[in-house]
Amino acid sequence: MRRLLNKFLNLPLRAKFVLSFLGVICFGGILTLTFGTRLEHNTIFSLAQAKVRHDLASAWMVYNEKLNNIRDIVLLNSMRESIQHAVTHDDRETLMKYLSRVRKDFRLDILTLTDTQGRVILRTTQPEIKGDDQSQDPLIDRALRGETVQATQIIPKEELLKEGKDLADRAYLKFIPTPKAAIRKEDHEEDGMMLKAAAPLIDETGDIIGVLYGGILLNQNYEIVDRVKEIVFKGEKYKGIDIGTVTIFQNDLRVSTNVKSLEGQRAIGTRVSKEVNKAVLEEGKAWIHRAFVVHDWYIAAYEPIRSIDAEIIGILYVGMLEKPYIDLRNNVMLTFTGIAIICVAILLVILYFITSTIIHPLQSMVVATTKIAQGDLSHKVNINFRDEIGQLAQAFNQMTEDLNKANKKLIQWGKTLEIKVKERTKKLQEMQDSLVHSEKMASLGKMAAGVAHEINNPLTSILINTHLMLEKTEKNDTFYENLSLIADETSRCSEIVKGLLEFSRQNPPQKNFADINELIDSTLSILENQVAFQNIKIIKNLDQNLPQIEIDANKIKQVFWNLAINAAEAMPEEGTLTIVTRYSKDKKYIEIEVADTGIGIPKEKIRQLFDPFFTTKDKGTGLGLAVSYGIIEQHQGKIEAKSEESQGSTFIISLPIS
Length: 658
Description:
The protein is of the alpha+beta class and 658 residues long. It is built from 16 helices and 21 strands. β1 and β2 (120-123) form a beta hairpin. It is rod-shaped and about 225 Å long.
């Protein structure tokens, strides 16, 4: 069950709608069909039972009419003076002649005359049999007391034989096995069932002079049942089968019927079902229900036939074939089912369009969600409904727009953070480099100071003695050239020692307010006369609005001098030296840019430019830029280099504005 539920929950939304709708319709349809079928069945069968009850009343009318007709025949003839006169004068010939004609004309099975004691004086069927006592017959007994009576009566076989062997033969019926019938020990019936009437013969003085009785044997007599069938059902058939049937039962045995057997013969000798037997014959109740009659189901009505003493001696039955009503019910239900199916189909089509109005917007939102998940935050859901889905779409679009804005802010913030991280990293790197450089400078400074003091005195002695020897040596002497070389190299060592001393001292700057532009002009005015600057073009782009700043002018000029000399040495043949002064972007520094068009510096060597003793020149000491770096640091400034091979170098000095 849980697996089916999970499968249902994983179905597409349209399938869920359709299956849920079908489930509700099918459940409702099954309930409707169940209760509708039962209601229709009950209604149809109630109407059918009402009709068969009415038909049974009609059958009783025909039955009683026949019984009353016999009574009238007997009564009218008992009142004839000729018969009374013939009885009084024992004129058997007249009686026989007249009564035989009456029996034949009115198709009576018996017409018999008794005396005042109830002994038979004339039988029209068998005149030779007479003298038997009939006073024990309830009808004869009442007639002898002056009543005219009629009733249905069971006639024993011996009495039938007195009236004629043909009547006994008609009464004899062999039982035919019948489904659902009650068990009986007998296998045949010999007695007969008769409609009988008796009337007293009363003379002029009012005395009873005899009794006239007559009757019709119902066994294998189909007049009544066929007449009822004709009056009530009018010979209607359904698929070749008679719709209506009528039966007269002697006890539970069919003795007169138009119910047909499978062979198409009247089902004489078949018996009533056990259920009807109990209800009608034993309990004496009317039974109106569906019943199995011989070989088919009927909507039947049964009522007991009673004798003059109210004893149940038989059953009058009227039945209608159930199949037409079953088919009618089935056709109605099939029609109803067909209409229901058509309605379901129409409703499914309507549901399809209704669900489309729901699902298509949701599908649009699913597509939009997929595109947004793929990064397209500009996608919009175009739904113009004002219902809940429209509100959801508007909220979705608003959410997408907010998400897009947030995403842009996040991207911008990320970029800003990345820039800040880079800037911070750069600053940290610069600080680290500066710290390392400072520590390196301090260590080198201490070492340089010690080395300079230790080497300076011997170098001075060597240089003095060399010059003394040169003064005493002739220029054409072979030692003169060697001594000159010694003097030059010793002077060079002395310059290195001097640089080391300058580098190691790092005396605090003597700051005063000065104009950077004036310092640059004074430095360049001296350098322009140097031989190295004869082929170099100097371009000055100085901002005249710069304020004076607090610096050590001599040390700053030394920095300008070192940078200019280095630039000139990087342009041995010719080139351009450009010097620019300006405010920094944050207006907190004055920037001095010194650029040349020389040979440039390889990128991998730029980080080493400010290290002591690092040089790219053949005879450089590698202390000029290191000293310059130290001077700028003493002024809380910065110096950085940019260079590309064959593209020249640029040095930017930043000095804080006080």
